[in-house]
Known about the structure:
Blueprint: H1 6-17, H2 25-77, E1 81-82, E2 85-86, H3 87-108, H4 110-135, H5 145-163, H6 169-179, H7 204-208
Antiparallel strand pairs: 1-2
Amino acid sequence: MATITDKDNDSKDTIETDHNLFWNTGIDELLAKWCDQAKCFEWMHAKCFDYNYKLSRKFVIFISLLTALSGLSNVIAGSYNINGFQVSWFFGGITILISTLTMLQDKLGYQQKADLHKRISNQWGVIRGKIEEVVILPPNARKDCRTFVKMIKSDINQISLEGNALIPDNIRNECLDKFKNIKDFDIPDICGQVEHTKVYIETKNNFNTPLLIQ
């Protein structure tokens, strides 16, 4: 009686998993969808960067002005008082306010958020660029289809898990308003425009004449 060896199992697994993926209209449409969404995420994270960076700068400038005012006024006012009220008490209050604002800035982390959104926006820009560089080429001049699609999907999954939850609702709504009037433009579902799931449809263009890129 014949037995199935580990070698036979390895061969079977190789046959079952060694699937070729061909460049076709369906793949091109999928990449175009990912590219549209990458543009949206790049734009949204850029907007988030601008928002957080401006708030961070405002905090820094305001705290710097208060610090300068407090130091200068302490020198000028000294022990001067008005009807028994020590002017230095007022400027002591400014010092406390400066400390409070500094702590608040650290807790809110506007600069850290700005840096994070800038990095994520740049990563989405890289993904967009990679897709655009490939889809503009004729199929026989492109890289291996399976390797490229797998790489792009891995990059998208990684950056989506890190960045999607960081985008506030108002920025998502702005994105929807900005891109919704572009014909056939695919906006991410997180912006509120959910689309019907597309399935593979067998056609002459994507079945009978596949293009395999070696």
